[in-house]
Amino acid sequence: MSETMIFQPDASTGIDTFISSGSAETNFGGQGILQIGYTLAGKNTTLSRGLFRFDVAALGSAIIESASLVLSCESASALTLPATFHGYRLTEPAWTELGATWWNRDGVHDWTTGGGDFTTEIQGTGEVVTPGQNLTITNLDALIEDALANRDGLLDLIVIGPESGSQSSFMQVRSSDYADGASRPKLIVDYTVRRRVIPNFTGGMQTLTGNLGA
Prior knowledge:
mainly beta, 8-stranded antiparallel beta sheet, 1 helix
């Protein structure tokens, strides 16, 4: 039977921020609002991307069926609809919420490429089609499986929205530092508990439900 686990850290445990090419040396960690998309000012384009980390180690050896990241909308008044957003795995896990900028991953060390180091393969997708709609990035199950198998349960994700066009198009979403706890970033994972089959004392087989932490 499928079960659901929701990860929604608060300000003390949540790790998220956004980085901006227009303020390339500015850290926005600790703010309640994150911006994702792009703005135009004359001939200058400013890109903004969201960075998120979730510790999903509590899932243990579970079989991941589906996973989605839900970001609560603060404002989408400047977003050209419909708008598509993508999630990618950050390949540099040493970034920090209070150090990451467009150029630096932790306030000291540079990203290999400005704007964050991430996989080129799209891992998750979400679309906003109506004003005020929350942003839901779906199809993150492979990233959860990868985090459990290879990264000590840490999921590092960058969310990228529209980055080109004839007019500004960006969305503001609420971070783990937002005052209303129900509006903070939420990772929803549907899973089944992995079962182990072992011989019983009579020579038959016995099915045991595995512990998530096993």
